[in-house]
Amino acid sequence: MADHPHYVGRFAPSPTGPLHLGSLVAALGGYLDAKSAGGQWLIRIEDLDPPRAVPGADRHILKQLADHGLVSDQPVRYQSQRLHQFDEALSVLRDKGHLYFCNCSRRSYPGLYPGTCRARGMAFEQPAALRFRVSETTIKQKDLAQGALTWTHGKDFGDFIVHRRDGLHAYQLAVVVDDIAQAVTRIVRGADLLSATPMQTCLYHAFGVKPPETLHLPMVLGRDGQKLSKQTHAPPVDTEAAADNLNQALRFLNQPIIASDNPKTILDTAIKNWRIDRIPKLIGKTL
Ligand SMILES: [Zn+2]
C-alpha cells in the first residue's frame, strides 16, 4: 500500500461513442492499479477533436463508468476547456527551439515523417502544422506489463505534430500537458497506445519533467482479430450486466473473478486481488 503514496492514475476516453468492453478493460485495470496502491484515479474527457466528438457521448461514458462503480476521485476534466494551457505549452516548446513549421501533406511521405521541413526554417504560413524536433536517438521504457521496450528514432518514431494544420492541438501534446498538470504518476492504458510512448517521453524531456511509469494492458480483440473499437462498431457495454462485464474484464486481465452481483463488492475484492504480474504480457488477445 505504501509503495506509491502519491500515486495518481487516469482514464482518458475520447467522447466518440459509448464505452465498449475494450475501454472498460482499460478503465478497470487503471482503477484497480491505482486503488491497490492507495492512489487516486481520475477521469479526463479527451474532446480535442470537435468533428469526431459525438454530442452527449461524454455523459453517456461517465454514466456507464459510474454504473460499473468507476468514479473519478476529482472533478472530471475536459481537454476542450484547456486550450489556453496547450497554447502556453506550445510557446514554451517554441521558445526552447523544439518546434518547426511543416506544410507536408500526409500523402507526401509513405511511412514515418522523414524530417523534410526540419532544416527549412519556414516562417509562419497557413496552413502549416507545428512539429516537434526529436533529438533522442532511442527511447527506452520498462513497461510494468510488457517489460523492457526500446524505440529507435527514424525507425519506430519520427518528428511528430503537436499543433495540426487545421488549428487543433495534437493528441500527444494535450495528453502530456494534462498528465503533467494532473501530476499523473502512472499511465495504465491499452497496448494500442504503446507507439505513442516514445513521442510522449520526448515531450516530458522537453518540459523537464520525469515521465510517468507505464502499464500497457493487452488490447481486447474481436473474433476478426481486430481491436474492439468504436470504429469497428464494438457494442456498448450493457450497464444492466455490470457485474458480468466486470468479471469478463477481470478474466481478460487474468485476475480472479468474483462471485457477486454487486459492482462495488466486485471492485473492493478485485482491488485486494490485483496483481500486475498476472496480466498477460501480450499486445492483444481475444476475450
Ligand atoms: Zn514537412
Give a short summary of the structure.
This protein has seven helices and twelve strands.
Walk me through the structure.
- The longest helix has 16 residues, at about 20-35.
- This protein has helices spanning about 20-35, 55-65, 85-95, 170-180, 195-205, 240-250, 265-275; strands spanning about 10, 40-45, 75-80, 100, 130, 140-145, 145-150, 160-165, 185-190, 215, 220, 285.
- The chain has a single domain (about 10-280), classed as 3-Layer(aba) Sandwich (Rossmann fold).
- The chain contains seven helices and twelve strands.
- α1 (about 20-35) crosses α7 and α4 crosses α5.
- The radius of gyration is 19 Å and the shape is globular.
- The strands form five sheets. The chain has a three-stranded parallel beta sheet with strand order 1-2-3.
- The protein has about 290 residues and is of the alpha/beta class.
- The chain starts with 7 loop residues before the first strand and ends with a strand.
- Helices cover about 30% and strands about 20% of the residues.
- The structure holds zinc ion.
- Zinc ion binds near residues 102, 104, 116 and 117.
